[in-house]
Write a structure and sequence with these properties.
There is one protein chain. With 268 residues, the chain is an alpha+beta fold. It has a single domain, classed as tRNA(His) guanylyltransferase (Thg1) (Alpha-Beta Plaits). It is built from nine helices and six strands. It has a six-stranded antiparallel β-sheet, with helices on both faces. α5 packs parallel to α7. The chain binds 2'-deoxyguanosine-5'-triphosphate and magnesium ion (4 copies). The site of one magnesium ion has 4 residues, from loops.
Length: 268
C-alpha cells in the first residue's frame, strides 16, 4: 500500500528500547494513597484487605506477563522484575510500563469487591510507573533489598506510632515527639516494655512485604478420552504447571536466593 504523506510523523517517536542484558524493573506506586487510604477507611498502620488487593492485582499482572520473574510489594507499591533476556514488546520501556500499570490498575478495581465487600470504591485509583534497568544480579538484589528495608523502616515506625496513639492514648503530635530521634532499638524497647509487644512477632506480611515468584507444581487432572470403537474413558494425567506463589520472607540475605536459584540468570 502506498504511504500517505502523513507517514513521516512516525519518525517523531523516540526510541526507548531498554539496554540488552539488563533486568527491567517496573515499579508502580499508588497516586495520593495518603488520601485514598483515609477515604476508604484503611486500618492503621496496616490494612490486610488493602495489601491483599495489591497482591491479587500483582498476581494478575504476573499471570498476564509471564516474563516477570519476581514481584515485590509493600504499602501502595509493587515492583515487577522482567527477566534480563526478555524480548517482550521489543523491550520498549513505555510499552512495558504502561501495560503493567494499566493491567494492575484495572485489576485493583476488578477485584476490589473481593477484598472490601460492600464498602464502595469512591473514585478510580491511579498508579504511577517508572522503569529502572539493573545490569547485574548484585544491583538487582540491592534494589529489592532497598525496597524491603524501606518496608521494615516504615512499618517499625508506623507500628510503634499507632501503638502509642491507639493503646497509649497519645495524640498524633505527642507520638511524633516521643519518636523523634529514636533508633530502631528504642522503638523496639518502647513496644516491648510499655505494651508487651515483641516486634519480631508481628505478622511477616507487615514486616517483610510480599514477594511473588513462580513455583513449579505437579498437578493431577482427570481427562476424558474417546478412543475409536471404545467407550469414553477417564484417565489421570499429571503435568507440571507454573503457579504464582506468595511469601513474606527475607529477600535481603542469601538464603532466599539459594533456595530459588531459577529466579536470576547468570551475570556472564
Ligand atoms: P504519591 O505516591 O506521591 O502520589 O503520594 P502517596 O500519598 O501515595 O504517598 P506514598 O506512596 O509515599 O505513601 C503511601 C501512603 O499510603 C501513605 O500515606 C500510607 C498509605 N497506606 C499504604 N498502605 C496502607 C495501609 O495498609 N493502611 C493505611 N492506613 N495506610 C496505608
Ligand atoms: Mg511518593
Ligand atoms: Mg503512593
Ligand atoms: Mg508509596
Ligand atoms: Mg494497537
Amino acid at each position: 500500500m502506498a504511504k500517505s504523506k502523513f507517514e513521516y510523523v512516525r519518525n517523531f517517536e523516540t526510541d526507548d528500547t531498554c539496554l540488552k542484558n539488563c533486568y527491567i524493573v517496573v515499579r508502580l506506586d499508588g497516586r495520593n494513597f495518603h488520601k485514598f487510604s483515609e477515604q476508604h477507611n484503611f486500618s492503621k498502620p496496616n490494612d490486610g484487605r488493602a495489601l491483599g488487593l495489591m497482591t491479587r492485582s500483582a498476581r494478575s499482572v504476573m499471570e498476564d506477563m509471564d516474563d516477570v520473574i519476581i514481584s515485590y510489594g509493600q504499602s501502595d507499591e509493587y515492583s515487577f522484575v522482567f527477566k534480563r533476556s526478555t524480548n517482550w514488546f521489543k523491550r520498549r520501556a513505555s510499552k512495558l510500563m504502561t501495560h503493567v500499570a494499566s493491567h494492575f490498575s484495572s485489576s485493583y478495581v476488578f477485584y476490589w469487591k473481593d477484598y472490601f465487600g460492600d464498602q464502595p470504591l469512591l473514585y478510580p485509583p491511579g498508579f504511577d510507573g517508572r522503569v529502572v534497568l539493573y545490569p547485574s544480579n548484585r544491583n538487582l538484589r540491592d534494589y529489592l533489598s532497598w525496597r524491603q528495608a524501606d518496608c521494615h523502616i516504615n512499618n517499625l515506625y508506623n507500628t510503634v506510632f499507632w501503638t502509642l496513639v491507639q493503646r497509649g492514648g497519645l495524640t498524633t503530635t505527642q507520638a511524633e515527639d516521643r519518636l523523634k530521634r529514636t533508633l530502631a532499638a528504642d522503638k523496639n524497647e518502647i513496644m516491648f516494655s510499655e505494651f508487651d509487644i515483641n516486634y519480631n512477632n508481628e505478622p511477616p506480611i507487615y514486616r517483610k512485604g510480599t514477594s511473588l515468584i513462580w513455583k513449579k507444581m505437579e498437578e493431577t487432572v482427570t481427562k476424558h478420552v474417546e478412543l475409536p470403537d471404545e467407550e469414553e474413558k477417564e484417565v489421570l494425567v499429571t503435568r507440571t504447571r507454573r503457579r504464582v506463589s506468595a511469601c513474606h520472607c527475607d529477600i535481603v540475605g542469601d538464603q532466599f536466593w539459594e533456595e530459588h536459584p531459577d529466579i536470576l540468570e547468570d551475570d556472564n
